[in-house]
Amino acid sequence: MLALLRAAAADDGVRPLSEEAELRLQHGGPAGGRDVLATGADGVPVGYARLELGEPGSDAEGEVVVAPVARRQGTGRALLSRLEELAGDRPLRVWAHGDLPAATALATARGYTRARVLLQMRRPLTDADRDPRPALPDGVAVAAFRPGRDEPAWLRVNARAFATHPEQGSWTAEDLRLRQAEPWFDPAGFLLAWRGDPDAGGTLLGSHWTKVHPPGDAGPDPVGEVYVLGIDPDAQGLGLGRALTDLGLAHLRGLGLEQVLLYVEEDNVPAVALYERSGFTRHAVDVSWRRVP
């Protein structure tokens, strides 16, 4: 299956599945999820789809990828039909990574409408300050994440910072553990802002978790990512977002990377404007298509 994903990414120039879908493909997921596989006459996989039913009453969510050699042969349509069957009477949302014309044509032909748009924005790192010295509030210091010690505090602040986000705010200890087990995980690039001593009653105020995509994952060269940048609501207005951003970009630049990406909702106008002022430009688009039975 991973070979199918790599072939699709090389052909389309975008990752065909979300990180979450890839993790669940490899490790399984919560109850209610389903994997759907399409194979050719020789038994080799030519398509894959993932369905998440989630909580009762919520929309079902799916993703579909078709091998380049099996396109324009009805494979994508068959996989989507199966997701619709499995979703039953629930509305179904399906992600189209890259907003490619073929995905748009298939979705609109089957009565889907654009429900959510996620922007990938990028900026060069060549002009990033290698040694930023941001002014932090009194009593606040930034330190690297400590596996085995900082998980509970980070999960609490992540839930508060992303309370209204449809995916990020619901992360569990298992979601965090899976990512810590990934080859790209590097605690040195997972920066936490603490008020006081974290081992003596200190309070976590926010964090900037960076990620490095290997060559071929987000382009021919390795690319950094502003993976998760979150500030506790009680710490808003202290300038921690900008401080943690600068420190994270410096870390990525120190690794020799030349480019960094991030994801942001298109309708989050203030955030998009902030990132544009910080030198980020729109690079790619992911669309969530929704269909009501």
TrEMBL record:
Domain N-acetyltransferase: 1-134, 140-293
Pfam families tied to this protein: Acetyltransf_1
Binding site for 1D-myo-inositol 2-(L-cysteinylamino)-2-deoxy-alpha-D-glucopyranoside: 19, 167, 211, 225, 263
Its EC number(s): 2.3.1.189
Aminoacyl-tRNA synthetase listed as a keyword: no
Molecular function terms from GO: mycothiol synthase activity
InterPro entries named in the record: Acyl_CoA_acyltransferase, Bact_Acetyltransf, GNAT_dom, Mycothiol_AcTrfase
Binding sites annotated in the UniProt record for acetyl-CoA 1: 64-66
Keyword Acyltransferase among UniProt keywords: yes
Biological process (GO), any one: mycothiol biosynthetic process
Keywords (A to Z) from UniProt: Acyltransferase, Repeat, Transferase
The protein's enzyme class: transferase
Source domain of life: Bacteria
Catalyzed reactions: 1D-myo-inositol 2-(L-cysteinylamino)-2-deoxy-alpha-D-glucopyranoside + acetyl-CoA = mycothiol + CoA + H(+)
Binding site for acetyl-CoA 2: 229-231, 236-242
Family: Belongs to the acetyltransferase family. MshD subfamily.
HAMAP family: MshD (MF_01698)
General function of this protein: Catalyzes the transfer of acetyl from acetyl-CoA to desacetylmycothiol (Cys-GlcN-Ins) to form mycothiol.
The protein's assembly and partners: Monomer.
UniProt-listed PANTHER family: AMINOALKYLPHOSPHONATE N-ACETYLTRANSFERASE-RELATED-RELATED
Protein name per UniProt: Mycothiol acetyltransferase
Species assigned in the record: Geodermatophilus saharensis
Taxonomic lineage: Bacteria, Bacillati, Actinomycetota, Actinomycetes, Geodermatophilales
